[in-house]
Amino acid sequence: MMISVVSTVETLPRGTGTPAPSVYQRIRKVLSRDLLVTLASGQVLSLLICAIGLTSKYLADDFHANTPVFQSFLNYILLFLVYTTTLAVRQGEGNLLAILKQRWWKYMILGLIDIEANYLILKAYQYTTLSSVQLLDCFVIPVVLLLSWFFLLVRYKAAHIVGTLLCLLGIGCMVGADVLLGRQQGLGDQKLFGDLLVLGGATLYGISNICEEFIVKNLSRVEFLGMMGLFGSFFSGIQLAIMEHKELLKVPWDWQIGLLYVGFSAFMFSLYSFMPLVMKRTSAASINLSLLTADLYSLFCGLFLFHYKFSCLYLLSFVIIILGLVVYSSASTYVVQDPRVYKQFRNAVNHRPTDRLQPSQRVLEPSVAYTSLGPESGEEPTLRVL
């Protein structure tokens, strides 16, 4: 065995080191199992949002049931029945009463933010165009990136910026195809007001996503969903009674409408339940980039269900977004505990060599623990001084 190893080494030409990895090995290294699972999980979320949009469209267009608050109320009720009751029967610090005593007001604010984010986006369709909603809704991505940088202390690399720009370019192709095909749905007289609603809803979505990421990675997924069920059902019920009770009475109830409401609630509940699991593996930024394909899935379904016109730009948009997701997910991010430590790490390259110093005179440099966008193992990696 030793002879064969030595002979192999000797046959290598002088001046050559380890053979360079092949193209297949490089692709396999980038497209790892963790990355593929991350991409697949994001697309499952996109398909759920596509199903939510289709059921809402059928309710609004075919049955004239414009009840966005009631639809959200049904989802919050399901969250309450499943997750809030789970917290209620828990023992110890994870009990519902213990959580409410410690941070009830924080979850109350978060519940209001989540409710109004859904409401503003759905309301915007009455005033502005579909293309404007699709384009301006991407404002959630810079919001999430900025909030992650300042509040979660996440640090990004060039690959993350390039991946984000590619995803936004893909959305630009999709909106361009909509304009060329004349799909200006939802055009109203108050377009500027509708655009402002979209920007407001996207901002609230970004805040909600960052809070969700922090909670599921530091506290508990069940705690987040249980509190959303508690405060979401309470405040959406009040909003329903004040703003939408007349619209609810106008709904022509039959088994088809009931089935659509059941389907919408099931898809929405699945989205809320599955998203924290994906967010624990990845991040709020990665999820929002993955959700950009939801509009494309809706368009592909519309080709068969609503006889939309097809454009090759849709396929190009899908390919560009997926490429952007691969580029974004191929690099790892890291989290700093203290910005001063991060600054010290960046300046560490200018420190004098410590190899020749005595052990007592050596300055210990901070070490960096990277966290990839794949599955996490153990505790959340942090940047710390050793």
Describe this structure in words.
The protein is mostly helical. 70% of the residues lie in helices and 1% in strands. It has 15 helices and two strands. It has helices spanning 2-10, 23-30, 33-62, 68-88, 96-124, 130-136, 140-150, 158-181, 191-218, 221-249, 255-281, 284-290, 294-305, 312-330, 339-346, and strands at 154-155, 334-335. A two-stranded antiparallel sheet has the order 1-2.
Q: Would you summarize the structure shown here?
A:
With 386 residues, this protein is mainly alpha-helical. It is built from 15 helices and 2 strands.
The residue-averaged pLDDT reads: 79
Task: Tell me the series of helices and strands, N- to C-terminal.
Answer: HHHHHHHEHHHHHHHEH
Shape: globular
**Overall helicity:** 55-70%
**Annotation field: number of helices:** 15
**Approximately what portion of the residues adopt beta-strand conformation?**
under 5%
Task: Give the uncertain stretches in residue-range form.
Answer: 1-13, 339-386
Largest sheet: 2 strands, antiparallel
Query: In total, how many beta strands?
Result: 2
Q: What is the straight-line distance between the termini?
A: 41 Å
Task: Give the helix/strand class.
Answer: mainly alpha
Name the strands of the widest sheet in spatial order.
1-2
User: Using only CA atoms, what is the Rg?
Assistant: 25 Å
Features:
two-stranded antiparallel ribbon, mainly alpha, single chain, disordered C terminus, 70% helix, 1% strand, globular, 15 helices, disordered N terminus, 386 residues
